[in-house]
Amino acid sequence: MRKPEDCSNMAELRAEIDRLDDTLVRLLAERASFIDRAAQIKADVDLPARIDSRVEQVVENVRRHAENYGLPPDLVEKLWRRLIDWSIAREETHLGPDSLRKT
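The line above is the sequence of chorismate mutase; the predicted C-alpha cells follow.
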C-alpha cells in the first residue's frame, strides 16, 4: 500500500486505484450482507424496506464523513442516495415492495 505521493508513474497509481476498487467492492458486499440481515429482521417485526427517517439519518452521517475527509458532501450524498435506493430494492426482494405491504 502506497501513498499517492509515493507513486512515481501511472502504473503504480493504477495499481493502487485497482487495489482500492477491490477494497471498495468487498466493503459493498459486506454492506449488502447487513442489508440482507436487515430485511430478515424487518420481516419479523413487519417493518417496510424504506424508512424515511433512517434514510435521512444515513445521508446526514455520510455528509459529515465526507466533510471530515475533505470530499464534497453533495457528491457523496448523491452517491449514497443511489446506494440506499439499491439497498432498499435489495430488501424488497426479500420483503416484497413497500407499496404492497399493509400499513
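Note on the example: Helices lie at 10-45, 52-68, 73-95. The chain has a mean pLDDT of 94.
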